[in-house]
Automatic annotation (TrEMBL):
The protein's name: Cellulose synthase-like protein G1
GO cellular component terms, semicolon-separated: endomembrane system; membrane
Enzyme Commission identifier(s): 2.4.1.12
Pfam families associated with the record: Cellulose_synt
Amino acid sequence: METLLLNTIHVQNLLVIINRLHMLLHSTALAFLFYYRLCFLFQPSETIESHSLPWLLVFASEIILSFIWILDQAYRWHPVLRSIFQERLLEDHKLPSIDVFICTADPTKEPTLDVMNTVLSAMALDYPPQKLHMYVSDEGGSPLTLHGVREASKFARSSVYMEDKQKIKEKYEAFKEEIKTFRKDRTFSRDHPSVNEVMQETIIDDADNVKMPLLVCVSREKKPSDPHHFKAGAFNVLLRASSVMSNSPYILVLDCDMFCNDPTSKGTDLLQLKEYFGSSNEFIRSLAQNCTSDLVSGQKYALLEEPHFLASCNYEIGTK
């Protein structure tokens, strides 16, 4: 059976000609300019000594700007247009599930409202909600971030099918005010236990008939005496926690770095896997499959014991 393309590429021939002519003219002008500057070096020594420093500074700046211009021509050399065919996408039930990782650390440097806007925009992706799982990593263990995720969950659920834009705007203003009010008289500690809280399950009860993505706030345990490896450590925790909750085959990272498990680990000896990935049997089992974990199927929960264990400081001790 022939596979239909999801997009086609069209070369913009006229723009190719215009861009390359411009590059030729600009390069010719630069060549004459450099020739003129280099000729200065062969002038009488009296002239060179009196103007050498300003001349060299100008020449150096021209070289730098020319180099930047050359780098900028890469995408102009062969411009194309893409035509997409959304109607050829797979049906919803055939699409793979996706885990979305969003990481934040300090609400004073990364305002909670901005982070929650990222969460809300990700939850609004045009993708089957039952196959979309949001994980917000809070490196600072901030009550404000946890409160913000809770409020974002409430706002998303209350406005998901609302068509009145004015009412949505009013709810959003109330959502912003709630976050700003909570921020007052709050202190945050950098020494905190792990917190893994599920704001809402993928599918809300049948009475509401509202489908929403899974939303989880993950805050790993931190102690001043233990190394935490910054963002890399945060994504290690997200990978471990998500693997026993949703275990999607694809990961979308927003505004952060990425960490992936080694695909060659499948089929490796169990003891050897534990040397690299820790002692959690549920996490090890998740490496060999791309399906929903037993922990998340049909359960309503706020905190899970296994993600707490995976987010603890001691979990990585003894691993490679």
